[in-house]
Amino acid sequence: MTWTAPRTWTDGETVTAVEMNAHVRDNLKAIGDAWAAYTPALTGVTLGNGTLTAASLQAGKLTACRGSLTLGSTSSITTTVRIGLPATANPTVSYYAFAGLVTLVDASPTARKFWIPVSASATAFVISDPDYVLVNTTTPWTWATGDQIMWEFFYEAA
């Protein structure tokens, strides 16, 4: 179900079931239904036999997204990783502000790092530590089979 701009009611107006369903029920369903799958564009990644899953929810301009990239034996990180967004970010918001977390998993030895999503453009994000060191071929480690990048964050769409 998609989000619609809620109606503005006036004093004394008789509200019908059709209006309530369209402007209240359906919008609540839009944020309560299953998230929609999307396939993010990847830059700096050769997916090979790795796996990529992502989903998003959009209610008005509020966009939430989550995803997981797991490297396979024929996958590689070739340069700075950029991951596509499900909807274009609002260009009037400074730095396309994102609120959320990216979890990086080194499968062998098992290690985890928690970094942040940072805008690369209105259509993609990069992954950064607090000092703006970006995930790339050897950062935060040399990437190998089974390593993962998982994200979950929200932002304002255009």
Query: What kind of sheet is the major sheet?
Result: 9 strands, antiparallel
- Rg of Cα set: 19 Å
> Could you say how many structural domains there are in total?
1
Helix content: 10-25%
What is the count of helical runs? 1
Low-confidence stretches: none
The best one-word shape is: elongated
Question: Reading side by side through the largest sheet, how are the strands ordered?
Answer: 1-3-4-9-6-7-8-5-2
Can you put this structure into words, describing what you see?
- With 158 residues, the chain is mainly beta.
- It has one domain.
- 10% of the residues lie in helices and 43% in strands.
- The protein contains 1 helix and 9 strands; from the N terminus they run H-E-E-E-E-E-E-E-E-E.
- The protein has one helix at 17-32, and strands spanning 36-37, 42-46, 51-59, 62-70, 76-84, 98-107, 110-119, 124-128, 148-156.
- The chain has a 9-stranded antiparallel beta sheet with strand order 1-3-4-9-6-7-8-5-2.
- A hairpin with a 2-residue loop joins strand 6 (98-107) and strand 7 (110-119).
- The longest helix is centred in the first third of the chain and has 16 residues, at 17-32.
- The radius of gyration is 19 Å and the shape is elongated.
- The chain starts with 16 loop residues before the first helix and ends with a strand.
- The mean pLDDT is 93.
